[in-house]
Specification:
Blueprint (H helix, E strand, L loop, with lengths): L7 E3 L8 E12 L2 E7 L10 E2 L2 E3 L6 H13 L11 E9 L4 E11 L11 E7 L1 H4 L12 H19 L1
Parallel strand pairs: 2-7
Antiparallel strand pairs: 1-6, 2-3, 2-5, 3-4, 3-8, 6-7
Length: about 160
């Protein structure tokens, strides 16, 4: 059953899946915190909602290049010299009412807290513990589908944090 206001998130593609585009999401960790970006109030789809750096993969790009580009565009952080530190996490298949797309997720643990320079797509940012954003009273502030994705990513994120500690 499709949700009227958001996607259904799959970990394997449904038989009738028709991908319109591919996206890449990046979870940037600093200590036990994940960087979340608050969308601009002028955002067409989900103004004021929290998300992570994400964008469509261009036909000539590999995933890591998309991730590096999106992180730079959305936060000002240049990770081009640290591509080998991205860890592939998962692939999700998102189904909205009118289209499907796939999204590959990557995680990078940052050694230093970076300076953030937001693009016009976002109005604010903050570093949150995963449990804080997954708290039932907080999940309504996340972009559609992110709660379901983060629940699937939770084990890997905690593993990376514990290894870095």
């Amino acid at each position: 059953m499709l949700l009227k206001n958001g996607p259904v998130v799959f970990t394997v593609p449904p038989i009738d899946f028709k991908r319109k585009f591919e996206a890449v999401s990046c979870y940037l960790l600093y200590r036990e915190y994940i960087l979340f970006l608050k969308r601009s109030d002028e955002d067409d789809s989900e103004p004021g909602k929290l998300g992570v750096p994400t964008g469509k993969r261009r036909s000539y790009e590999v995933d890591i290049d998309t991730g590096v580009r999106e992180v730079k565009e959305e936060t000002g952080i240049d990770l081009s010299k640290h591509k080998n530190r991205f860890i592939f996490s998962n692939q999700f298949y998102m189904r909205y009412e009118k289209f499907d797309f796939s999204c590959r997720t990557y995680v990078m643990h940052l050694l230093e807290k970076p300076t953030i320079v937001l693009s016009s797509e976002h109005q604010a940012y903050d570093w949150y513990k995963l449990g804080h954003v997954l708290c039932p009273t907080r999940t309504d502030v996340l972009v559609k589908g992110l709660k379901e994705v983060l629940i699937c990513e939770e084990r890997l994120v905690h593993e990376i944090i514990s290894k870095a500690a």
